[in-house]
User: Fold these one by one.
Assistant:
Number 1:
Amino acid sequence: MLTVQELEEALAAPTDELIEDLAQLDGDIMILGVGGKMGPSLAKLAQNAIQKGKLGKKVYGVSRFSSGTLQQELEACGIETIAADLLKEEDLAGLPNVKNIIYMAGNKFGTTGNEHFTWAMNAYLPGRVAATFPHSRIVVFSTGNVYPLTPIQASGAKEKDPVGPVGEYAQSCLGRERVFTHFSHKHHIPMVMFRLNYAIDMRYGVLLEIAQKVNNLKPIDVTMGHANVIWQGDANSYALRSLLYCQTPPTVLNITGPETISIRRIAEEFGELFQKEPLFVGEEQDTALLSNAAESFRLFGYPSVSLQQMIDWTGTWVLNEGETINKPTHFQQRKGAF
């Protein structure tokens, strides 16, 4: 995989399982916040599955579309786009009444110093969306940051484990879940809380950040010594398939890969590939932000792209100076400051 076109095609290639699940789903699909890192490929994946399966559904993509060519790109794929600021009541009220909603709107980076906007996006807006669509089913993108740091030998937090968000971003994400859950109870809205960490493709993510530092001979902080990752295409597929598992009260699903990866070991693998010696700072702590996604594997099967495949693809991408986007994960953060 060497070009953005090849990457986009891989991300948007539907599995038979996705097509079969969408065939069981009544109604169209609307993605709120389609302009983020994962939204465009999720929209294209849904559209391709619908076309390949001849399912006769429509995909809507909603974003501000304030710059760039994304709106035209999605329209060219057959996705109906709607330019809207969801914080504006008139824009929200003007959206079509769609049965299936993937809620991806939110704010993370830049929270420090702008906490009020993060809370408005992550905790106020969910209530407005839920009140606007009381008869839809909603998959709510959330995050593993709602959990506390857990011992690395404990295989990650499970869905029924107590939450313990660290920092205002994570607290606001728990606020998003709590507000949606309130309206799920009030209006009997079936939902899934989709707790994701960390999705990657070749242009961003934990593996790319490690590979770049190894390749550029920059020190790698291993204080947060472990993490989980999942291929973005698999995460997007799971999100769409989660529409079948929406319930009241909401279903909670952890979404990530099956491995607890060692940051040091991954860096050493990239070092072997690049023939460069990784530089490390800090010392691994005995806790990390980790999730146990066994329940999602029971529902959807294991990810189609393995950890080793992601490592190989990322290494090749870096060696060939592939295109990247400047959206670091800040996975090293232990105090929740974003």
Note: The two ends are 31 Å apart (CA to CA).
Number 2:
Amino acid sequence: MDNITVLNKSISTKKINQDDYISITDIAKYKDEVDANDIIKNWFRNRNTIEFLGLWEKLNNADFKPVEFDLIKNDAGLNSFTMSAKKWCEKTGAIGVISKSGRYGGTYAHKDIAFEFASWVSVELKLYLIKEFQRLKEEEYKQLGWDIKRNLTKINYRIHTDAIKNNIIPNIVNQSQINYVYASEADILNIALFGQTAKEFKESNPTNKGNIRDYADVSQLVCLANLESLNALFIEEGLSQAKRLIKLNQVAINQMKILVDDKNIEYLKAKE
């Protein structure tokens, strides 16, 4: 769950089944802090609201109940007509609106519906809400992009270490020997790409937190992921450490020349 601030009001958002939902209870509080639920009920009494909600459900919800919806739509707009978010969901099987009671409850709506409700409350509020929501999504995409790049390296590292385990480490060794081989193999990549071992980096940068790879830029991370896959292949082919280091260094030089000039890489850097 994330909160965004719109016109000095905190509005919560959360993921439900991978879709973005926004608290329309918080949106209603922009108009009336005390009677927010009544504002939502008044919106649900509107015939245009019911038609909009029904159309959204037909487009997005295979389990929506059209017969029950038609009965509700026929009564919508009458003086005697009453409707709430909870009642709407129970009768029609709607998924676009979620209403729960309790301390951490409230009424949430899919972003498409929440923006429509915000427009009914205040056009100004809707415009600022869309702007802040887009900013939130940009931050999420930025973080997602970085996570994907880091996870790609981690996945390739698993391939890399499995190849070491299956092809380099002798059958009978103690744990310290195993750890040494892993560290040694990791430093082959460090030397090929960064020109130094992890220990040398740490000694020359004693105040830095993390390891040498934590300070790699986007181009270096992409290249490192490729080197890990190649090193695993070279290990399978039985190449010695010395030969692998020379090959990996040549690949690193060629790939970095290409990546440094790649406009897409520059775009990713700008997003960091």
Note: The chain has a mean pLDDT of 80.
